[in-house]
Amino acid sequence: MADKHMRALQYDSFGGGAAALKHVEVPIPKPSKGELLLKLEATSINPVDWKIQKGMLRPLFPRKFPWIPATDVAGEVIDVGPGVNNFKVGDKVVSMLDVFKGGGLSEYAVGSQKLTVLRPPEVSAAEGAGLPVAGLTALQALTYHGGITLDKTGPTTNVLITAASGGVGQYAVQLAKLGNIHVTATCGERNIDLVKSLGADEVIDYKTPQGAALKSPSDKKYDVVVHCATPIPWSTFEPNLGPNGKVIDITPNASAFWTAVVKKVTCSKKKLVPSLLIPKAENLEYLVGLVKEGKLKTVIDSKYPLSEGEEAWAKSIDGHATGKIIVEP
Ligand SMILES: NC(=O)c1ccc[n+]([C@@H]2O[C@H](COP(=O)([O-])OP(=O)(O)OC[C@H]3O[C@@H](n4cnc5c(N)ncnc54)[C@H](OP(=O)(O)O)[C@@H]3O)[C@@H](O)[C@H]2O)c1
């Protein structure tokens, strides 16, 4: 395996968008201690992947060039490093690759056993590959930060999910509906029926005045907002929140961080909580289990072969995906 090569897409410097991705042949990586070598069947692209290319996460990512982007993959274990006990050659898995290493836009990648879970036959590679970043972010925003119980035992809660047609939003709507939740969602007009079909109780077009103001059609005040769209000022959220309303902001800008601090130090009952994904295998296992049981699905925007991976990249940068963009080697 060590002498063999694989096809991959990589870039050599910051910037340049899809045109800067180069098709290359590079050595197949070797699994180190605790790692698995995966033959990839599907990779999903997240906005963070091209934000890294733009240099928006400098100096953390990437640590070196050339860089093979993307972390969310599904595939088959074809080799294991020392100390791997929970997986064997032939296992089908979903994995979130090390964010400091990337490697997903390729035919093979190494993933840590700590962030890999088994993928049952009911979960396709594409559905599984959609889950790591987007699914975990939706789950953690609702549960850890929003304090929502994802079964029918919790109190009735009013939740707003913005950009409900996107990779994160589509999972957030479906997960919220596992709980005792009234979901209001925003999306573009063309996706209203889809978002309703995912379970949203009320859907508003973000391009209308009501949508821009985030107003619930039934005059509900939100207990929790999972904010997945581009930054919106606190003054827009505030009048729509219940007395203890919380905005879980997965796209916080400097102003949002400032609002979060001010709300905290003034002991405000209404809060803004910037949310950053914490990769956890037990959460990923939970999501894969929900897909297996038919309680969660991955809405797939489009699939591209690796040979056309730059088109998938451009589609994600364009910002109008409905669900997840998948690349298949
Ligand atoms: N904090 C974290 O840990 C974390 C984790 C994951 C993602 N994120 C961030 O969260 C954001 C969303 O990620 P994603 O993967 O869901 O993105 P995405 O899939 O690219 O989202 C695209 C969707 O958003 C819709 N949209 C765009 N602007 C909107 C608006 N103002 N109101 C309502 N809908 C809108 C688009 O609808 P139209 O096509 O109709 O415009 C499109 O369907 C990104 O900025 C990403 O970087 C953060």
TrEMBL record:
GO terms assigned for molecular function: quinone reductase (NADPH) activity
Regions crossing the membrane: none
Domain Enoyl reductase (ER) residue range list: 16-327
Keyword Heme: no
InterPro entries: ADH-like_N, Chloroplast_QOR, ER, GroES-like_sf, NAD(P)-bd_dom_sf
Enzyme Commission code: 1.6.5.5
UniProt keywords, alphabetically: Oxidoreductase
CDD domains: MDR1
Highest taxon, organism lineage: Eukaryota
Pfam families tied to this protein: ADH_N (PF08240), ADH_zinc_N_2 (PF13602)
Protein name: NADPH:quinone reductase
Higher taxonomy: Eukaryota, Viridiplantae, Streptophyta, Embryophyta, Tracheophyta
